[in-house]
Write a structure and sequence with these properties.
single chain, mainly alpha, 2 helices
């Protein structure tokens, strides 16, 4: 888009220069025609015809100058619009770049959060495994305690019986 806009601006500038040159040539022609008319007006035979001819030439030249000025103004407006559009395009490009950077930052944050979540999942699995091992150990200790308690109760009972026999 920028390249197209630049090319279009260059084309319009060239066209503007051509129109300005044409306008200058027209003004030169008009001045030359005015000079010729002055030369013709010096001769007395064609005084009335010359005045009419000079008037027509001046009208034609003025009309052509006005047309060229109007075309020039139109081209200037088009150039300004293209410049404005080019600025808008640049602003859009800058905004896009900013949004792209923000998107990259958010992607990095998301990646960090995903890594953190993975670590927490692993930590939870480790804790779960540890918890299961602790529950098994507890159950084994309870079995051992019950066995020890049963042995102790039996020993106490045996000691009481021995004591009663004595």
């Amino acid at each position: 888009d920028r390249d197209t806009d630049k090319k279009r601006i260059e084309e319009l500038l060239e066209e503007n220069m051509v129109l300005e040159i044409a306008q200058k040539q027209s003004m030169n022609e008009s001045a030359h025609l005015g000079w010729e008319l002055e030369q013709l007006s010096k001769s007395t035979d064609l005084a009335d015809t010359r005045k009419s001819f000079v008037f027509e030439l001046n009208e034609c030249a003025s009309s052509r100058i006005l047309k060229l000025e109007k075309d020039n103004q139109s081209l200037q407006n088009t150039i300004q619009e293209l410049r404005d559009a080019s600025l808008t395009s640049k602003e859009s490009s800058l905004k896009f770049v900013e949004l792209e950077k923000e998107n990259q930052q958010l992607s990095k944050k998301i990646e960090k959060l995903q890594n953190q979540i993975e670590k927490e999942k692993q930590s939870n699995q480790d804790l779960e495994t540890l918890s299961e091992e602790l529950i098994k150990d507890k159950e084994q200790l309870q079995v051992v305690m019950e066995t020890l308690k049963a042995d102790k109760d039996r020993q106490i009972k045996d000691l009481k019986q021995e004591n009663d026999h004595l």
